[in-house]
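Continuing the batch. This is chain 6 of the set; chains 1 through 5 are on the previous pages. Same settings as before, nothing changed between runs. Recording input and output for traceability.
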Amino acid sequence: MFGIDKSESPVQIDDNGDNCQSRQSQTGRRDPTARACAGGGFSRNPETTTIQFRAMASELINNLDYSIQRKLAEGGMADVFLAEQIGINGFTKRVAIKVIKEELSEQQEFLDNFIGEAKLVADLVHTNIAQTYHLGESDGRYFIVMEYIRGVNLQELGDQLYHKQIRLPVELAVFITSRIARALAYAHTKRGAFDELLGIVHRDISFRNVMVSFEGDVKLMDFGIAKALGYLRNQEGRILAGKPDYMSPEQAQFKITDARSDIFSTGVVLSSLLLGYNIFWHEKPEKARRNVIRAKLPKFMKVDPRIDERLDTILRRCLSKDLHKRYQTAEELLHDLELYIYGEGYGPTNESLAEFINHAYGQFKSTPVIVSKGDTIPLSHATDWTSTLRKGA
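Output for chain 6:
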């Protein structure tokens, strides 16, 4: 089924490792891209050879069959559909397909970024990042085939909790945020094919770009305006990108950003999950930006008595306007978040988050769920979770 073309290929089939040894002796150093040389396998030399699987030729890939089921979301630049990938012998797989808007299909700058996003995320393989499977084109319109997540984004979850008058437990708020930090710790340190640091900055961490599945998985979405070496056009400092009430102060001031900008935005997500509203929100984007740049942080422990001194410290480090006082890496933030929820033993899990989400949407019969470190309580007894949650103020 698979054909190998040695004449055009950057990969050389090697049965005994001699080619690796020869190349090493000629160059005086080990080829950093060599794989499985000794004892059989193949070695990689991008300048000379390529392995070609004819069954995976471009014409076959472009003719993969997808059956569109319904529209999931509509945005200013692309629409997202639920679809089924159809294979032989009754094989189907549910996927999400992101399709570029028709009116944007001929704008080369946007098209380049759309393609760049697909290429970037295809290589970001992490349990807390929504996966990308395929980039295709049909009748001049490009599309990205992605992992389908049966769940809701944090904005939808927040609206549902507000409607049901349910407050998200502190430990689950911290748990969700820790999973975002895990995704960022991976993305920020991601390296390319030649071991170069890609310098990824998401730049759009917000409620709408974090999904929670009904199975309790947390997934970071939409790297469409991310900054990454060699993948997307970077107009930072000239064009403002992102949601104003989630931006870092440096992002809101058109300054160059690094990983610490994402940490600030993650702090906005955490405070919003805890308080039930975004502390920087304003209906006018310019005033939201001004809030991010100038507004003083509230006294979190007074606004919400559930927030203790340790969590208050985490929030203030995330949301520091001084870059040097902010968490310097996502790994640092992840450590403190997980120490907070697991430091005394058993803490929240995907299963306890799933139980809470399904209860909020009326999908499950109630069973115990974590409400404080080390304790469980049936959902049916959780009357003190309810409160009037304020929207943006």
